Amino acid sequence: MEIDWGAIITQALLMLVKAVLPLLLAALLGWLGLEWKKFRSGKHAELAMYLAEAARIAVASAEQSGLAKLIEDKAEVKKQFAIDYVENYLETVGLRVNVNLIADTIEAEVKKQFPHPEPVHSLPIDVGL
Known about the structure:
Elements: H1 5-67, H2 75-92, H3 99-113
Helix pairs in contact: 1-2, 1-3, 2-3
């Protein structure tokens, strides 16, 4: 009786593949998951950068447009002007953002560009010193 080494080697390789393949697939899926997280965090960082820059420009533009009487110089009119600007800008770079997020970003930018001084409270009482 002759030994069929080809069949033995084939069976051994099949068993090895069956044992190693699940490990390789698990490692591949883990790696893909990490890459996906990196991609998403990069995408969010890019979105945040575009949103912040657009809000900065929009707030300044709305303020200047109000002062120049190109739009009504009221807070709600200037806010809508800024929202429209940011939406249009983000659309041109292929990004869509919830309008509430845009409005919140604009509010934060307004506070950053035009900080209100602390209110002056009553002066200390003169006790005659």
